[in-house]
Amino acid sequence: MLDPIIYPIFAEYAKQPYQMYQVMNEQGEIIGQKPEGIENEQILELYTWMKRMVAFDKVCINLQRTGRMGTYPSIRGQEACQIGSVYGLLETDWLVPTFRESGTMWYHGIDPVQIMQYWIGNEKGSEHPKSKNVLPIQICVGAHLPHAVGLGWAERLKNGENIAICSFSDGATSEGDFHAAMNFAAVYDTRTIFFLQNNKYAISTHTNLQTKAECFAVKGEGYGLPSIKVDGNDILATIAVMQEAQKMARDENKSSFVEAMTYRLLDHTTSDNAKLYREDSEVEEAKKFDPILRLELYLKLENLINDQKIEEIEKNGSKEAEGYAEKALASENPAPEDMFKYLLAKPYPDLVKQMQSINENLNPAS
Fold first, then answer.
1. Are 203 and 268 in contact (CB under 8 A)?
2. Which of these, 95, 121, 92, lies nearest to 106 by C-alpha position?
3. In Å, what is the CA distance from 331 to each residue of 96, 131, 341?
4. Which residues does 136 contact at the CB level (< 8 Å), separation at least 6?
5. pTM, whole model, 2 decimals?
6. Bridge-partner residues for 94, per DSSP?
7. Closest to 167 measured CA to CA, from 183, 158, 178
């Protein structure tokens, strides 16, 4: 049993397993307890960060549409999850990202130029600084969850203070890796936070075809993990929940499961056409719950922002993102063997053979 004094949010949810935790409603009104350390100054900073992410997203999509970037997965609509999931983490905590994590990785300290390099196809985009405990982007759905469990378990065995968080979407819950990771984390108390961004679609598959459970959070409970459903478009609620999850992992070695309810406003990736499987009216309805709009309403109610300030933030964000794009596009082309360098500490024999074969074919003996 969780101590309701130390973990009031998780403890209360355990009594009402299908309820969604919320601090700020869609009208920008505070209806719950603000997370510790979050006042108006921090809320304005969070709003500015999310607007920067929107600008970054737009530039990446434009790069793809003009043939200067490969496919790109937009984070539009999920900005509160992107920041809220890692807010308050130590710099040395492990982040194990899936592919829709541009904002998460950026907020946790990865250079946005590197993120763009990755999607451009430059292998330098996976060469994260050794000072940053962030794994390379994982494209295979759900395959990174066991990695996060292993990292969290290793940190526990070392008796350090670091924890691990992995973020994923609803589609990953139908993968075997999800279930293996959840069970291992629960049994061995691996200090792993599972953060599910329920954006309603796994490409074109709606969540009602993904599970018959009332919600995904109950799956965590089924494995014996403290679990909760939170409004993922409410950044304050998301931060509050993650503060408890982090404390639980750090102080008690407990893993946990967080289902953040959100919505993917744009296509799955730039190679997708969401109009083929969802109505425009559905998207328009979802925009009413936009996490950025919610903060904007609150900040206006508090007289902390106006249209002029919003325009200034947007212009600065666009200029910043364009600057990152210029640097990413100006990067030197990587050597072909770089594709083997930034995933494993030591490549296994088959990879070494592949690398040698590529070098031999590209540089035949004269």
1. yes
2. 95
3. 25, 22, 18
4. 126, 128, 342, 343
5. 0.95
6. 164
7. 178
CA-closest candidate to residue 259, choices 32, 27, 64, 17 = 17
Q: Where along the chain do its domains lie?
A: 8-334, 336-366
Correct CATH for 8-334 of 3.30.450.40, 3.30.70.140, 3.40.50.970, 3.60.15.10: 3.40.50.970
Give me the average pLDDT of each 10-residue run along the chain (366 residues): 91 87 97 97 98 98 97 98 98 97 97 97 90 94 97 96 97 97 98 98 95 94 96 98 98 97 98 97 98 98 97 98 98 87 84 90 75
The one-letter code for the residue type at 63 is L
Beta pairing class for 205-206 and 201-202: antiparallel
Q: Report the distance separating Cα 291 and Cα 284, nearest Å.
A: 14
Give the start-end residues of each E strand in the chain: 94-96, 164-169, 192-198, 201-202, 205-206, 227-231, 256-261
Distance CA 248, CA 251 (A): 6
Neighbours of 360 (CB within 10 A): 10
**CA distances for 351 relative to 21, 181, 343, 355, angstroms:** 47, 26, 11, 6
Cα separations in angstroms, 4 against 94, 237, 290: 27, 17, 31
Q: Is 278 exposed, middle or buried (0-12, 13-18, 19+ CB in 10 A)?
A: middle
Residue 82 near residue 107 (C-beta atoms within 8 A): yes
Separation between Cα atoms, residue 188 and residue 92, nearest integer Å: 22
Residue 302 gets the label, from left (phi > 0), alpha (psi -120 to 50) or beta, of alpha
Closest to 128 (Cα-Cα) out of 147, 143, 113: 113
pLDDT tens per residue across span 17-66? 789 999 999 999 999 999 999 999 999 999 999 999 999 999 999 999 99
Contact between residue 58 and residue 321 where contact means Cβ atoms under 8 Å apart: yes
